[in-house]
Every structure is written in structure tokens, then in C-alpha cells.
Amino acid sequence: MDEEYPLSENGSEPETDELPEQSDETEELAGERLRFRVGSNLKFRRLDKYLCGRFSHFSRTRLQKLIKEQGVNVNGRPAKPSYQLRAGDEIDLILPPRPIRELIPENIPLDVLYEDDYLIVINKQADLIVHPARGYKHGTLVNALVYHYQKLSKGSDDWRPGIVHRLDRNTTGVLVVAKDDTSHWKLSRQFADRKTRKTYLAIVHGTPALRADCINQPLGVHPFIREKFAIRPDIGKEAITIYEALEAFRGYSLLKLDLKTGRTHQIRVHLSWMKHPIVADDLYGGKVVYPWQIEDREPAPENPLMARTALHAWRLELTHPATGEPMTFEAPLPADMQAFLDALRKYRRADVQKP
């Protein structure tokens, strides 16, 4: 959502002027945010009946519940099921999730930062994929969640119960999970509306020329490499990252990054574009770092100090979906990043230190 990204990585907002009426394809939109305008050929004027006709895979009861919970906005305001639609009205909603397929529970340890009846906040470890996907049906965070918890939201599809947003496999840190469907769509809307605040820490190669700056470069799929993303002024979506250098070392820097959007691989692509890729992020130009390199010794057969992408979701600020209270969660640096940072402070001191 890398970084953390809502389910359409990831902060993206599916926006369409029109969607097909009575289309089987609408089942695939479950859990996604939709925006569209009402056309002039109205078969049903009541909001609940209109949505039932438009999204035939969802029962009227489920859609009425979503409307009553203020999950559907018409012209920017929550509407009642009986609202009489007019041509040109703009509808904004997140469809209810579909039923969950059977997932295999696995006893994978979880580092829980916070939990109540509505949500779970986890400090995700490295080398953990968030949910099952092509080629990965086991060993994911979701497999762990269904082992440890009986109550989870249905998620945005069959393989993502509870998952509101994502982090890349080797990105560590704060990740929120929903326990019920109402909490899920409320949290999803916060991410989609950019009402959450996401702050990351990264160790990068080199030192940026500016101590702090805003990177505003649109992101899209890489034109040639399927698994990568790239700066795409032609087709890319808006992507904004604000960075601040907390510490500078010889050859490396510790950066704090605030995301204003949440595109797939956003931080990784933006920092690579700056010519300061994240350490060990081989997909975007980062290099694995060994002790002999940091200590300026002769090359030696040693284990790397940093063998995975040095990116950590440090802080997440959101509004509690039930109480409406603002909440802030922080996850301490994982052991590998802390050890790497300690080595930099010992062997790679520079003139500029913490501001």
C-alpha cells in the first residue's frame, strides 16, 4: 500500500463516470471505492433499489445496511435508502466485501501493537506477504490472522479477510486489520480519502541535496517489466512523497517519509528516481551492504548487515472506526535496520547529524 497501500498497495481511488448496469463484473469490485454519476435512464429512483439493480450480486439487505451506516454518499453527503435519485447525482461508496473462501490457518507469530473489538494493529515482520496471491497460498499474514482470530472482516476479496491496506513483503511496521465489515469500510474510506497519515523510515544510498523536499511524480506500471512501477507522466496517477533527512552518514542517509498518496511501490520508486535508492532494494537499484563495506575493510566472506529493503512503516495515524477518536500507532525499528543504523553511526559519521 509497499508501503502501505489500500487495496485498489494502495491509496488508489477507482473512479468511473459510468459502470455497467447488472454486470457480472461488479462482483469483482467488492471492497473497492467507486464513484459514478447517475444517468438519465433511471429504472429505479430509490437509492437502495437503484444500487440493487446496478450491483445485482449484492442483496438489498446488505446494501441497505451499508447506506444506513452512512457508507454511501450522494453529492458528497450520506444519504438514506429512500433517497430519490436524479440524473447527474454523484454516488460515492465502497461495496460490501464478498464471502470468504476457506483459508488454511497457520501458527505464524504476530507482534500485536494494539487490539480491541473493532481492529488489530500489527507490527509486521520482514519476509511476510500480507495475503495469498498467485504462487503464495501459505505462509502469509492472512494465514496467521485466521489462525489467531475468529472474528475478522470479510475483506475486499476471498483471500483478504481483515486486510484494509498492505505492506510489501520485506517492508516492516504498522499495519491495521479490521475485525468487522463496518470497521473495514470506514477504515478503507479513510485511506481512500487520504485522512490517514503514514510515516516511514528508510535508509538510502547517498545524501539528498536538499535536507527536506516534496517529490510529486506520477506513478504507473513499468512499460517493460511487469513487477515494477515507474515515473509515468503519460499515464501515471498522482503520487506525492515528502521526505526529511534525519541523519546523514558517509554514503548513506536515514530519511523520514510522509505519504500524501499511497501508490504501489511509491516510496521505492520516488527514492530511486532521486538517485537515492533504498538500501538492499534490488528491484529499484539498492545494494546489499556488508560489514566490511561500512567499516572500510578489505572484502571478506560475511553475512550482510542489510539483506532486505531497508524500509519501515514507523507510524500510522487514523480515526477509530467506532469511537471517532484519533489514534496514533508506532512500531520500533526492526533489529536488522537498528543494527545497520548503529553500524553507520559508529563507522560512517558525517558532518551533518540529527537536525
Give the topology.
Layout: E1 5-6, E2 33-37, H1 47-54, H2 60-68, E3 72-74, E4 77-78, E5 90-94, E6 112-115, E7 119-124, H3 141-148, E8 165-166, E9 172-178, H4 181-192, E10 197-205, E11 212-216, E12 219-221, E13 229-231, E14 240-249, E15 252-259, H5 266-273, H6 291-294, E16 311-319, E17 326-330, H7 335-347
Parallel strand pairs: 9-16
Antiparallel strand pairs: 1-8, 2-5, 3-4, 3-5, 6-7, 7-9, 10-15, 10-16, 11-14, 12-13, 14-15, 16-17
Helix pairs in contact: 1-2
The CATH class label of the largest domain is: Alpha Beta
Structural class: alpha+beta
What amount of the residues lies in strands? 15-25%
Q: If you consult CATH, what is the topology of the largest domain?
A: Pseudouridine synthase
